[in-house]
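Give me the fold.
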Amino acid sequence: QASRNAGAWVDGVVRQVLSYGIVVDLPAGERGIVYATEFERFLEDPSDEFVLGQEVRVRITSQVEAGLLGLSMLRGQAEVQSDLDAQRQLPSARREAFEAAASPTLEEDEVSVDAQDLELRAMRGRLKDFLGVSPRQPLRALVQGDTPYGVLVSVSHPTDGGPSARGLLLAGATPELRVGETIQVYLVSVDTHRGVLALTAA
């Protein structure tokens, strides 16, 4: 029975339009009244808004005399308070969502920085093995690509089984080279700070 569900919203049909409200037929053969004070907005004449047979959505508020249920079209205090609470929590929820979305990115950045740092340390370690190589010692290098500063190559250590390191042939010091091509180079200097060998082809 609708009368047992105070606070519940139900669909009904306007049965009668009065000067002070409307009478509404509800499911299960029940009937209720919505006083003008319980409309969503002020109406000087309810007939301006409602007609017989019109479907309306109402909230059951109480049992009144003559077997009519008290009805309202206004939201209950609990619903209003819930909306207010949700609005207050919205900035916090947005901030938490933003932080949650940003956290993985920050972690990925940290992992990326750590990986780059480890790679640079490893390259510096390999470069130290080239400190004793004579500038007159020919070295074998594999062309990897062009940069604004010269040709990037991977240089093999002259000792069999020795480590390879990244090197840079100065721009304009060599003819056009193809990626994957093997060339002969000579050591100019070892830059352990930047993690690269300075090279020349002559």
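Helices lie at 77-128.
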